[in-house]
Amino acid sequence: MDNFVKSAIYTVVNTTSYAIIIYGNILVLYPLFYEKKKFAWYAILVVVFLVFAGVLRGYASIELYKYFLLIKTPSINLLMLLGYVPGGVLIYVLSLVFRIAIAYFTLKQQTEEIMLQKSQAELNLLKSQVQPHFLFNTLNNIYYKVYKVDPLSAGLIERLSDIMRYFVDESPKDAVPLATEVAFIENYMALEKIRIRHGASIDFEKEYDPELRLPPMLLMTFIENIFKHGIDKSRKQNLVTISLVQKDGYLLFKTTNHKIASPTIRQTDGFGIANLTQRLKMLYGSRFELKIDQDKELYTAFLKIPLL
Questions:
Q1: Residues 97-134 pLDDT 10s
Q2: For labeling, which of 45, 143, 144, 289 is most exposed (least CB within 10 Å)?
Q3: Where are the beta strands (DSSP E) in the chain?
Q4: Which of 189, 177, 183, 179 minimizes the C-alpha distance to 162?
Q5: What is the pLDDT of residues 158-207, one digit of tens each?
Q6: Which sequence spans correspond to the domains of the chain?
Q7: What is the rounded CA–CA span in Å between residue 24 and residue 38?
Q8: DSSP code for 215
Q9: pTM to 2 decimals?
């Protein structure tokens, strides 16, 4: 019923005002205060925001009407501008309902995706469990066959089965009994010694509570380094000393071995020690001690970690 200019001004001012209310709430107030459970601050800021948007809308409407339509309007006062505030309340309520609805359907979609991933993971877990158990059963059958003719070889098969069972059952855990970890290390060393022509003399000192727990595979880096870099297969005597001692709330682990004399092969820290150091920092922060000492003949590694 009004002329085109007045209708256009009304449309632009109101649409802009509603857009400010909607997006100000959805993009700023809702994520910064409502989602973070700061409900008191959210309520206060919503009131201030609606008052500001209403006053701005009223002032813009009056000034634009005056400028483009040459309409004489009463002098602008605060009470007149506050009359524009209630019109934005419904827009705010609708924007809040809309934003909550988006959050609900987003959460529902994420929940459905998580349930789907969980079902897939459970299926994959069942598949992964079938294969190792089949292998364990096969190893047990081989063990009983071999034991009749070669008990020593049967014992090695049993150690291999224990190692594989450790990888499947224990290594995914956050912590394992120290006795289980030591048994894994001893099985590993027994199998590695097969490859050494003249054998190796390993002195393993143990003094700890078997029920203590520690993250799995934490000590294996040192043992692997011994057999990779510290054993000379041509030497008739390879001496290795390992010490695992509980003392004053800490676990002390120390390995000492002779360095290989060949100039083409030298013992290095490599990625194993670097990765271990990173893992220790993640597990213990600065509450651990790791030292690597080496001279012309001996390579010594020392680790001190707090007990769990």
A1: 988 898 888 888 888 887 777 777 665 555 554 456 55
A2: 144
A3: 176-177, 201-207, 213-214, 239-247, 250-258, 289-294, 298-306
A4: 183
A5: 888 888 888 777 777 888 999 999 999 998 888 888 877 767 788 999 99
A6: 4-115, 195-306
A7: 17
A8: -
A9: 0.52
